[in-house]
């Protein structure tokens, strides 16, 4: 039976040796080649640190080369944002990244990056899916990788010098290197391993690396930089010997942050911190774009500093499009992906981590005190997300049924507070009379229901999460 290949929120992901096979990878590569027919510009191909990722990258490269494309194949494990920057820097038609981002170790995947280095639009994704289906049916053009390399159709390229130079345009790296900060970097065995040490070497700032060796099994970790998946990093920070902990996911397009006391700074707080830093300390102005799963704190800062805040569906294909349209200052989402004006309109976990370090230097305060200052400006906010996992078999039917039931029987109140507005273009978000909100969203890349809430304190957040789960008829308290 021929597999059906669908792109989720950010690319195609599948279980290795199940649907993620050389044949299917070749079909997606053929789909990209067909989409780029008539193009004379090169195509960038990169990969993360997952199992056989470089071999799958070679598979993509040899299919593209057989279709007449000149391929710039990155010569090492590379963060996804570095691939995206290389697309822009090399004036490429697009890029393909072999990665499953933060998914568990048994997954791999492919992301397609258009010529601007951001996420592909829904229209481009639909065309790639159509082309891939045709390739699965009609076959794939291919040639040997060795012949493609020998003949010059494939070029090996080191992307790090240009990428580091670009980071230096966004942040004063000389000042950061000489600031004397003690940084702990949790790379989660991913593509960001060694990046901070390399970028910041040569001064008084030091970087302690955690889980920086290559391990396609992620050492049993789930490579998502949130508190429950990085207890070792939080324990190390709690010892009090570092100024900040910076974590990245499997392909380093997301960031997680731990303050100097060992407290996890949640992704909504990080989004608000970046907004405050850019507006208050750097004195910059411009629209801010956030996903509907992020924080009302950004809206409060927008009102305080006189900038417009846009709330978009989840996915940088939506956020990045508005960033480009509005020349926005900042874009961000709850999963820890942040983009900054002057760079690519796409998540960059390396740049975001450096921005946190730069913020500490600029404010001349410990990160915990900068957080206190944020609360002084916008008031207290708490947040949590619960994940409920399902079997992969039958997940799409369950997803459709869940959304149908909510559509037919939406809650009129949650936790004793009236629902005053509902948004249903990406899951269901319920805005409550007391200013809090709760949201349920079925993942587009994993068999997973996510339930979110933001309120004034953590007890209220838990009340709202449980109330929404009860309304949905799913078990409460899953993480």
Automatic annotation (TrEMBL):
<dbReference type="InterPro" id="IPR005843">
    <property type="entry name" value="A-D-PHexomutase_C"/>
</dbReference>
<dbReference type="InterPro" id="IPR005846">
    <property type="entry name" value="A-D-PHexomutase_a/b/a-III"/>
</dbReference>
<dbReference type="InterPro" id="IPR016066">
    <property type="entry name" value="A-D-PHexomutase_CS"/>
</dbReference>
<feature type="domain" description="Alpha-D-phosphohexomutase C-terminal">
    <location>
        <begin position="424"/>
        <end position="468"/>
    </location>
</feature>
<keyword id="KW-0597">Phosphoprotein</keyword>
<feature type="domain" description="Alpha-D-phosphohexomutase alpha/beta/alpha">
    <location>
        <begin position="162"/>
        <end position="262"/>
    </location>
</feature>
<protein>
    <submittedName>
        <fullName>Phosphoglucomutase/phosphomannomutase family protein</fullName>
    </submittedName>
</protein>
<keyword id="KW-0413">Isomerase</keyword>
<keyword id="KW-0479">Metal-binding</keyword>
<dbReference type="Pfam" id="PF00408">
    <property type="entry name" value="PGM_PMM_IV"/>
</dbReference>
<feature type="domain" description="Alpha-D-phosphohexomutase alpha/beta/alpha">
    <location>
        <begin position="6"/>
        <end position="134"/>
    </location>
</feature>
<dbReference type="Pfam" id="PF02878">
    <property type="entry name" value="PGM_PMM_I"/>
</dbReference>
<feature type="domain" description="Alpha-D-phosphohexomutase alpha/beta/alpha">
    <location>
        <begin position="269"/>
        <end position="375"/>
    </location>
</feature>
<dbReference type="Pfam" id="PF02879">
    <property type="entry name" value="PGM_PMM_II"/>
</dbReference>
<dbReference type="Pfam" id="PF02880">
    <property type="entry name" value="PGM_PMM_III"/>
</dbReference>
<dbReference type="GO" id="GO:0005975">
    <property type="term" value="P:carbohydrate metabolic process"/>
</dbReference>
<dbReference type="InterPro" id="IPR005841">
    <property type="entry name" value="Alpha-D-phosphohexomutase_SF"/>
</dbReference>
<dbReference type="InterPro" id="IPR036900">
    <property type="entry name" value="A-D-PHexomutase_C_sf"/>
</dbReference>
<dbReference type="GO" id="GO:0000287">
    <property type="term" value="F:magnesium ion binding"/>
</dbReference>
<comment type="similarity">
    <text>Belongs to the phosphohexose mutase family.</text>
</comment>
<dbReference type="GO" id="GO:0006166">
    <property type="term" value="P:purine ribonucleoside salvage"/>
</dbReference>
<dbReference type="InterPro" id="IPR016055">
    <property type="entry name" value="A-D-PHexomutase_a/b/a-I/II/III"/>
</dbReference>
<dbReference type="GO" id="GO:0008973">
    <property type="term" value="F:phosphopentomutase activity"/>
</dbReference>
<dbReference type="InterPro" id="IPR005844">
    <property type="entry name" value="A-D-PHexomutase_a/b/a-I"/>
</dbReference>
<dbReference type="InterPro" id="IPR005845">
    <property type="entry name" value="A-D-PHexomutase_a/b/a-II"/>
</dbReference>
<keyword id="KW-0460">Magnesium</keyword>
